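Re: adenosine-5'-diphosphate structure - here you go.
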Amino acid sequence: MEIALIHSYKGGSGKTTFAVNAASILSASKKVLLIETDFMMPSFSNLYLEQQPDIFFNDYLNGRMKFEDVIYTFDHIAYDIIFADRQFIPSDKVHSSDRGWFLVMRDQLYSDLKKTDYDIVIFDLAPGISFFTLTILTIADRLFAIVRPDHQSFQGTLHLLENFYKRAINSLQVKFHVIFNQVPNYDPVYSLLDEWIHIMKSKYPYLLSFENIPYDPQTAYLAAINQAQLPETNSSFIKIKDLLDKIY
Ligand SMILES: Nc1ncnc2c1ncn2[C@@H]1O[C@H](COP(=O)(O)OP(=O)(O)O)[C@@H](O)[C@H]1O
Ligand SMILES: [Mg+2]
């Protein structure tokens, strides 16, 4: 079983779009579980159902339910899904900074994941630094950092590399991929990305790959009508499929 994390410094970079389409692409040949863990800004409930789910990852993390009981399986979707609760409950453990609890949770989650027969478990994480992400990073096999081609996102990703990812990559051997997303088709942007990639490569030689996903108006339009699952002809979808084919 592989644990793959989708993360970014800033929100709105395309994590959920990447996670949902990666889950669907990989589920053609593998058993996939997609877990929403953006507890501050959950969006899966909107994407998948007219009727809201009423069982959440929060219920498992707070000890109210067993792991297998928070997994949703749908006839028309090839992968399984776990939803994050849209309701903010301040007493939820996931919103705390109790290091001890996070470590116990991690060990329990890891052992529960190992008992399943999923080939790949994809975590759609909240952006930025949090105890949850830090904890999950210690059991991850692979991390996709989604970066928008703007200065703040690039600097933020460098900051994550220096202060957050670096230890995991060095000591835990997490395989790490940088994906620039929503890249406008404009030559100066591509030159800038080349410079950024050069900076990252020379500072962090263990970064495994760098990819670009172009800005695609259809992808943006489909999001506007509440559709994250992209058609097979969509250019973002094709790019995500190509890059996953190289890795898996
Ligand atoms: N390659 C792309 N081209 C155009 N729009 C994109 C692309 N990737 C993502 N988007 C749009 O950007 C917005 C944010 O994406 P989302 O996946 O929700 O980001 P996050 O989960 O990181 O907050 C959505 O409206 C989405 O459709
Ligand atoms: Mg998201």
